[in-house]
Amino acid sequence: MLAPSPRRPIIRPRAGFTLIELLAVIIVIMILMALLAPAVMGAFRRVRITAVRAEISQLETAIGKFKATYGAEPPSMILLQENPANWDATSRAVIRQLWPQYDFTSSIDINGNSTTTDTITLTGPECLVFFLSGPNVQNTPGTTPLNIGACRGFSKNPAFPFDRTSVTREGPLFEFLPSRFTDIDQDGFPEYVDPLPSQTAPYLYYSAYDGGGYNSLSNTEFTLINTNFAGLIEPYRQGIGVNAPYFKPNGFQIISPGYDKQYGFGGAYVTTGSSRLPTSPTVDPQYPNAFSTAAPTSGQRVFESDNITNFSEGTLAP
Ligand SMILES: [Ca+2]
Ligand SMILES: [Ca+2]
Ligand SMILES: [Ca+2]
To answer: Taking each helix axis from N to C terminus, what angle separates 124-133 and 19-70, rounded to the nearest 10 degrees?
Structure first.
């Protein structure tokens, strides 16, 4: 007779983790996430900065096309006159260079508000949009909410390029997205913001007027840009001091304010070294009004470190 076999202990698989094990796992995951989050956010940021830089390159290409079509790069300050008697000599010369057959004797409604008496003051950010894409579907000033639609290019009639009704049109040379238009000064002529999340400050544009030099339309350009957009005191220079040449000395500067939506001071910028944005004075005695602020503060320079431009690979100070 066989002896009854001893009872084997029954080994059951465990039903799950204990509470302490579960807590430990959660804590480890949280620590890992905390470690990885900045890296992930940083990667997102870099991708977005690269996207802005790529768009600035596309704007450069469009300006190249504008020059190929109209013979010069767009100005960054101009007064357009609906009443022909009101043209100032400098603005008239700019238009004549672009459209030699422009009719300076006839009235025209440029902003589409059914009058022909307006003076349209376009600053750098507005020139960037206007000269690459022409009058908007709607340019009437003071409209709230913004009613600025797609841009329609210029009339092919060389005497009336700003004619809004002409059917035969040229351009636009750049497809601005109406959703990214802003109109900070509420004059009906839009500025364009970069694709960074919730960006509100538009691209700045400074023209060297095809070798004529920055600021050739007098200090009004900088007074207005500061009044309307808190823009730079001057375009960026390649180094410290009033004799340092500007970046793109015969071309133009396009500047995104970056994530902080602030432009900063402008002027001296050195591309290498620890002090890329020096606080030393850059006052140019040639333009005492434009540079009445003696020197950039360190706070202003901080605003500039994330600016993205057409003369830097990404942000000014990585
Ligand atoms: Ca008008
Ligand atoms: Ca505007
Ligand atoms: Ca900035």
So the answer is: 70
